[in-house]
Amino acid sequence: MRVIFKAHFAKAALLDIFPTGLLIEFFGNQPSLKFFDRNLHELWCYPIQEISMLYLRRDLISFYWYEAGESKVIDLTNGRVIEQEPRIYIYSDSDIKAYVENSDEANLVIQKHGNKVSIPDVNGECVFGPTRLLRDWYKKKLTETYSSDDGELLWQVKYADLLQSEKAFLHSNIVAHNDKVYLSVDGTEDRGMFCLDCISGQVLNKYESIIGRIINDNNIIYSLFSNEIVYLHLETEQLNVWSINDILRENGFVSNFYQKWIVVDGVLFFTHFTGTDNAKLGAIDIIQKTLIWKHDLPLNTALIGGLYVKDSTLYIHTQDNSLYLFDLEH
Fold it and tell me: Which domain of life does the UniProt lineage start with (predicted)?
């Protein structure tokens, strides 16, 4: 793989990547949202008011942003604002829309094929499947599962019950795969990733070596903790553990502090910063167990706010509000 510098935007942050382009937020005296095509030609520009009030969601045909008490709905084919509604969208796809009305902030409305049901808005992470909604209720430290057809509560699991400790909390996102749910729970030395039955909530398995944040890439769950990559093949349940300590030190990475990391098509992209040295970006082929790329950034741009890969482009947002784009050539 070759990684080639592509573009740089000052006072900007990547907000979203959609099928035909990308959305970039620009700061400064006149903050705005700008849509670009994949060749970085500007398509549409929308002035915005308070950046902190933005709440963004997207499906394949529409983009939603919440500002000044209403959601604006933009048609991604022509950039036109087609609706303005007093609600916050939580989720949207071709079958299901979920939102909170300004007039009823205590409930989440699920709209499916014209039918509407309401469930308590637990103000946490939301994962939708064809018939179920998984929600993390972080204030009560539990995950609940509702039917998206009638809003019935199907089951709930308390993190304290998984670790037998009130200190337990959900460390990472919820991963749903087929009829199973994966949760990384932390708070005690007994931490790990739990596999639950999506229908009943019953604990099926626990993986003690999978700690912290988890990522699902092509039906493989990855975790990175203390210089160890752990990955679980969801179809075969084969578990692999690989220490990347030697390959890091051989290539000038001197600590195990990773600000951001993602896995895309079996390649680990990560940022590395010691606090006294320039930041480094790296890419490791997990299957081949080789470092395939590294790049230095100046110290004043060292802290990485975002790291994304989509369609052979690497996007990096740094603490000085710069957005860097790199082409990935295989």
Answer: Bacteria
